[in-house]
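User: Hello, can you help with two protein structures?

Assistant: Certainly.
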Amino acid sequence: MLNRFLQLRLRGLIVLAIILLCLPAFLSNPFHYDLATQMAIIAATVVGLNLLVGFAGQISLGHAGFFGLGAYFTGIMTGTYGWPAVPALIVGAIVVGFIAWVVGRPILRLKGHYLSMATLAVGFIIAIILNNERAITGGPDGMPVPALDLFGWELSSFGQYSLFGLEIEGFLAWYLFASLILLLAVWFAQNLIESPIGRALRSVHGSEVAARVVGVDTAKYKSLVFVISAVYASLMGSLYAHFQGFITPAVASFEFSIVLITMVVLGGMGSTFGVILGAVVLKLLPQVLADFQELETVMFGAILMLTMIFMPKGLLPTLTAVVSKKFEKKLEKKAGGAS
């Protein structure tokens, strides 16, 4: 069973890598690459959030706050104090992880809507701080962020780079880099899920009481996954800040937190590749519906509502179940015909 899962996990990563490598063939201008790069960064963020929500069963309505903290930390450190980007990303992730641990220990004792309200309050507090500290963050006007400096190699959407002897545009280089980060994020999440930590998280999701009875330190594992998901958000927020070149407190807003949690639910909680699909769909829908102008929001909401009604388990788990049933029926027909 374990070997079968490992094979499926490897196949999933290979399929995702092939899709990411082939996608540039369908991208015709910098705007398409910009959208695809944003998708990859946000998809990696929701992969981390899915560890908390889908596997540990702990809700977070303020997760954009950690995304925003990572974005602003690297923006301030690199732009104001001249830090190299990589140390800023790493230190930012450590700081955000520590903050998540400090706030997570008390609020993760709560359950249900009490936990939802607590995480919502954390997100609001972070957004308010980013808005009000004008001298440091630029306030509502935001702040510029330097290009990403990777050990002396500056990654910018407007540059040109040589890769394996080929000259590529900066927006393609950014897309490839974000795709690599997404693959690493998925690889780490998949390995964590099948580790003893992942099994403990699933037991917490199933029943905290039963988990405690068999010796699982539920408080420890809930805090751990909260920190891991916050570190995911911080790192992706930092990359997003360098990619965009400018950030505002909107990156830590309540609306963005709702978008992130909706991506997880839409794609399928507990499905790593499902939440990636949810991120892609939710980022693409506004572009597809843009021509409907004032009806865009109504149609967007209607599509999400209908999806949740008819696909309550999420897009990918539902589609996978449908395909599996059809495949099983075909096998049964063949077996019946052979007999």
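That covers the first. Now for the second protein you mentioned:
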Amino acid sequence: MLKIGVTGGIGVGKSVVCRIFALLGIPIYDADTRAKWVMRHDEALKQELTDAFGTGSYTEDGELNRAYLAKTAFHDPQKLALLNSIVHPHVAKDFSDWVAANNSAPYIVKEAALMYESEAWRQMDEIIAVFAPMDVRIKRLLQRDTHRTQQDIEAIIGKQLQEEEKMARAQHIVYNDDKQLLIPQVLKLHEAFLSKV
């Protein structure tokens, strides 16, 4: 089965691209959503996170304490690396199980902002980088994430792998710049992927 990765920085429109693939009947693995699920339900992972970051990692009712983990790890590169090194192997296993469960599909798509940072690209056959100019991304994010300031958004973008590097490493680029039509770009890729399976 062909495994296609979709990546790009915050605000480029990865989810929109994946929704088009989903409408075409292709199974989509949303790494961010699944990571949150795994962090709530994988008992071994919960123990590892508690051991590494303290009992504040989870609330009394067993829910992930995202605010605590963000405050503890996000601003410290070493702690963030530790957090990722604990979480990513569990998400990788979850992805492998999900692929096995979707083995009748012609191909699958994995959406992941941290495709390269998490080494998830190694599990993919091809990568699509979604691109949007910085001003378009910031405008979208200010409209979508009303709780964030422009400074917050720029800080998040600054921590992610540069778009130029993502585009250079990808086999395909989809431009979501509000100038080029998105659906024809995705349809062309869909047809290309189907021709390979």
